[in-house]
């Protein structure tokens, strides 16, 4: 581990996918970069299912060969199961696009994040884990550095020209500046664990992410097959419903599992591992993406919802876009908010398609199979969004038909018998 210097061109906070990607790409351009992660690496994290469009960032980072040689199972599609247990036809990505970039992986985040962290070091970044950012330093409204506590408890004041905040749901800068906004309509919680020996469908040449509603549609489950015969199974619902007054998280998980026939049947006879975890109120955004001397990437910028597995892809893509703006800023000396956040408006507009798809899902009436049957012309656009092709021209046109279709479904449900 290289010795900490007193000054860098760029300090990157957070050793997750966003921070490690940004650090690697800025360092690769010849700038001095410090990447700090508060936890000892490797560390556990939720978010095992990737979107295929991550491929292009992996290509830039030079890690595709490592991923292809890894034990991570190949993700070939997505499938939905409604509250009655009826399964949609799988959305197999290769059917839509036969190129290798149309498939991806279900990853073990401890191994995956470690790989990206080490890749940043290979690219020239100074990488320090078990190092906590105690504060981001400002001079008036400009970020000028950070105050760190290293693994020995020693404090360091580090000056820099740009701070990239990839601190995840800590959202250090957003919390410091008071610009974080929790989405009042998506105050969700998640309870999840892993099973060994659960059902594993590898038809189609790999595994799928399966999204399943409970019978009363108050919650949904993710089902993500991983390596070593394990499956990640998670329950998501309103924060108050899941975590207040219904027993322990383990008890609530079992109650909801019993109401989700698809998930319940798939884990019968499997071993439930002793790794139950909880997260809550994870959907939020920030009022601005950058300021003078600082920029937000990944979950430090915002997080929509886990239902379509967009989190890691948004982290990777935002970090790559921000890294290009930061590299140019360091070369020209223009580290203004306009330069560092120049990628933001297009990214925000593109991610809004996923946000709208999330809102459709939580309407309770978005039956994927039925919508595609009635509007087959949008199957390609829907598959593109599940792949992560949010920048593709015309992909959002689907909502011109989906929004009124949902209104009709909801009106039909409200009509008296």
TrEMBL record:
> What are the entry keywords?
Oxidoreductase
Pfam families (UniProt xref): FAD_binding_3 (PF01494)
According to the entry, every stretch annotated as the FAD-binding domain falls at 8-331
- The yes or no answer to whether the keyword Calcium is present is no
Key word Oxidoreductase present in the record? Answer: yes
Q: Which Gene3D superfamilies match?
A: FAD/NAD(P)-binding domain
What GO MF terms are annotated? FAD binding; oxidoreductase activity
Q: What is its EC number?
A: 1.-.-.-
Name of the protein: FAD-dependent oxidoreductase LodB
Which source organism? Aeoliella mucimassa
